[in-house]
Amino acid sequence: MLPENLYSLPREQQIGQFLFIGLPGTELDAETRALITEVQPGGVIIFGRNVASAAQLRGLLDGVRELLPTPPLFGIDQEGGLVDRLRRIFTPMPAARTIRQHGDLAAARALGRITGETLRMLGFNINFAPVMSIMTDDRDLLSNGLYSRSYGRSPGEVLGYTTVYMRGLQGAGCLGCLKHFPGIGAGEVDSHEEMPVVRLSHDDLIAQDLAPYIELFQRRDDRVRCVMVSHGGFPNIDIKEEMTGGLLVPASLNYNIVTQLLRHELGYKHLVVTDDLEMGAIARHYEIGDAAVRASLAGEDMLLICASPEKIRRGHEALLEAANTGRLPQNRIRESLHRIAKTKAIVEPPLPLDLERFRLLSDSIEKLNSKLNYVYGGTVK
């Protein structure tokens, strides 16, 4: 899809491209159809609540695709371990920590490859993985929910495992997304509940949590095409020390981090998405429309609003009003439309849903779990 094709859309549809939305349930019912038709989102993200069977899920995504004049991105958080949206219909996938503890780079690549092929058969084109957090022994004691989701305790470990995972995933034709920039492993709380504050200095962050990102950004193969920005607060790298209501502005809404650090300092040129704007770290302090506008002004290209149809609509309305009044400038809109279109132009089409092949891939994960002595755990969201 060429950028100028998005530029020619009516403004309401241009603004819809900024939204990556969740759906209420497993069916394309009247409520869901109305939401999709009204917002015309640039992306749709699937959760466990949307999954009943392989055929049902593929049918849901195909139905959404047919409703939209501009083909959407279809995303999912299919990390493995605690964050496994497909476990109702597919063998639960191993956690990143299990693979790292086993010292098995080949397992990371196999997980990426199997995940990529499976997702493409189901209709997806992007996976919001891998997690880039560095979890040292000290950080393992924190209650931030990242304990089992990390591939390493050092920049080198995280870089090694996530590199081969990405090769497997993207080699199978499914885009990956590095998260949660610029790194929330040192945060003491889970951003689903409230904002984790990371008090590392700029230099320490560059040397530790940002080091794997920097290495991947600098590679000539241009492997990284999507980055998700966290809701963490970073007081020691936020130059202006912006405060709202006495609180540090979270990274996802922060120009100093999204534009100055990620784009200008580190030179990243491709798609940037927020973490879910309905998470507690945002929802406790910002109305959804205000958060959506702030995120766009910070430099985010696509905004995840993952649960409430009402909040999805309010986010869309606030962005449209900001565009119509000039608060969200036209050049800012065009920049993001350009990156969204470039991303859509490189995603692979879905594979045919071959249920026998789907079963064989599920069996491959069962064998991988046996090799790793992985015991299933976690919950479905």
Topology:
Layout: H1 3-7, H2 11-16, E1 19-22, H3 30-39, E2 43-46, H4 54-67, E3 73-76, E4 78-80, E5 83-84, H5 96-102, H6 105-122, E6 126-127, H7 155-171, E7 175-176, E8 178-181, H8 202-207, H9 211-217, E9 226-229, E10 243-244, E11 247-248, H10 255-265, E12 271-274, H11 280-283, H12 288-298, E13 303-305, H13 309-325, H14 330-346, H15 355-372
Parallel strand pairs: 1-2, 1-13, 2-3, 3-6, 6-7, 8-9, 9-12
Antiparallel strand pairs: 4-5, 10-11
Helix pairs in contact: 3-13, 6-7, 6-15, 7-9, 12-13
Name some characteristics of this structure:
6-stranded parallel beta sheet, 10% strand, 381 residues, single chain, 3-stranded parallel beta sheet, alpha/beta, 44% helix
From the helix content, strand content and strand pairing, which structural class follows?
alpha/beta
CATH-level-4 superfamily name: Glycoside hydrolase, family 3, N-terminal domain
**Percentage of β-strand residues:** 5-15%
Q: Tell me about the largest β-sheet.
A: 6 strands, parallel
Order of helices and strands: HHEHEHEEEHHEHEEHHEEEHEHHEHHH
- Envelope shape: globular
CATH class: Alpha Beta
Instruction: Fill in the CATH topology.
Output: TIM Barrel
Query: If you average the pLDDT, what whole number results?
Result: 92
Helix content: 40-55%
Distance between the termini: 32 Å
Spatial extent as radius of gyration: 19 Å
> How many beta-strand elements?
13
Q: How many separate domains make up the residues?
A: 1
Describe the strand arrangement of the main beta sheet, using strand numbers. 7-6-3-2-1-13
| Low-pLDDT runs | 239-245
* CATH architecture field: Alpha-Beta Barrel
